[in-house]
Amino acid sequence: MEKAITVLPGDGIGPEVMKGTLRVLKAIESRFHHRFTVTEMPIGGNAIDETGNPLPPETIEQCKKSDAVLLGAVGGPKWDGMEQRPEQGLLRIRKELNVFANVRPVKAFGPLADIAPLKPALLENVDLVFVRELTGGIYFGQPKERKGSDEAVDTLYYHRKEIERVVKKAFVLAASRKKKLTSVDKANVLESSKLWREVVDETAKHYPDVKVEHMLVDNAAMQLVRNPAQFDVIVTENMFGDILSDEASMITGSLGMLASASLSEEGPGLYEPVHGSAPDIAGTNAANPLGMILSAAMMLRHSFHMNDEADAIELAVQEVLNANFRTGDISSNKDKVSTTDQVVEQLIYRL
Ligand code: ATP
Ligand code: MG
């Protein structure tokens, strides 16, 4: 297959983890006989340096005409206090691509049990996915204002259509996995949550083989640390998803391992690691490239329907960890720390 990928390396460790990821994609190309056309474009701090704009129009245009977008990370102390912020580039590209569903897998990698904050017994069989609504809810609802010195208001607004499209994505995902969907809300107090629940129940009729449960958000926060293995797909609104997915990302104790996809109805998906630009380790060949590489695997699976290819990468990641090649962030033995490049080498060797 031929696919066009726009690559936005960004700032900090972004370019380092992207470099390794592109080598992995080259290995996939030759093993599975595909052609990936890669076009690199600026975003974030480096785009501010080059053009004065964290999201230049050429970058938007290139992203929109490609089949998928891979992003490293943006930001860093260099741009602190500037009028133009690197993070604006990220928020705006999400809006431009209309990616309303943020998908974040959380999986326990067996060999990493020694660095996870939860007991190993609780981590067995943890393989869940968050689907977070990304473009609506309380972060965007109007009115949103400060009224004088003593009052402020935010609005949690959802239209049925906004809920339907993200809930549908979650059902499709659940149907392709363990066929269980947990919808998280606060329907005992919030009107928007009652509408959310209604839409989930209506949509469920079209997916009879998916088992649906509703869970209140306070209970979900507790269940995620009490027994995370009970979950398959979790769908929720923007703010609940923001908070719970960060909580869940710590189940495995390894920020550098986590991947994400932000999906729209029709256009290209945006794939990026969960971690940020990590300025403290940038340029030292110490960054864990696996979150970025697993994000590329999600791209192959979700945007290109290349399941065997994505499986091959995930298996190779597992094998690299089994062989105990780890960057500093996931190492429990400071005498044996691998560099970014070594981890990439090991992975490609296994591919
Ligand atoms: P941002 O605002 O961009 O999210 P942040 O400071 O909140 O930045 P990160 O940049 O993700 O968060 O970094 C948090 C900590 O985790 C830092 O100490 C960083 O070095 C470490 N870290 C993040 N990503 C990685 C990675 N891929 N490999 C190794 N360490 C990482
Ligand atoms: Mg952060």
TrEMBL record:
Cite the annotated pathway.
Amino-acid biosynthesis; L-leucine biosynthesis; L-leucine from 3-methyl-2-oxobutanoate: step 3/4
Q: Which residues hold Mg(2+)?
A: 218, 242, 246
Q: Which reaction does it catalyse?
A: (2R,3S)-3-isopropylmalate + NAD(+) = 4-methyl-2-oxopentanoate + CO2 + NADH
**Record carries keyword Nucleus:** no
Keyword list (alphabetical) reads:
Amino-acid biosynthesis, Branched-chain amino acid biosynthesis, Cytoplasm, Leucine biosynthesis, Magnesium, Manganese, Metal-binding, NAD, Oxidoreductase
Cofactor binding note: Binds 1 Mg(2+) or Mn(2+) ion per subunit.
- InterPro entries linked: IsoCit/isopropylmalate_DH_CS (IPR019818), IsoPropMal-DH-like_dom (IPR024084), Isopropylmalate_DH (IPR004429)
Major site of localization recorded for this protein? cytoplasm
- Site entry: Important for catalysis: 139, 186
Residues binding substrate: 94, 104, 132, 218
Q: What does this protein do?
A: Catalyzes the oxidation of 3-carboxy-2-hydroxy-4-methylpentanoate (3-isopropylmalate) to 3-carboxy-4-methyl-2-oxopentanoate. The product decarboxylates to 4-methyl-2 oxopentanoate.
Complexes and interactors: Homodimer.
Q: Which family is annotated?
A: Belongs to the isocitrate and isopropylmalate dehydrogenases family. LeuB type 1 subfamily.
Protein name (record): 3-isopropylmalate dehydrogenase
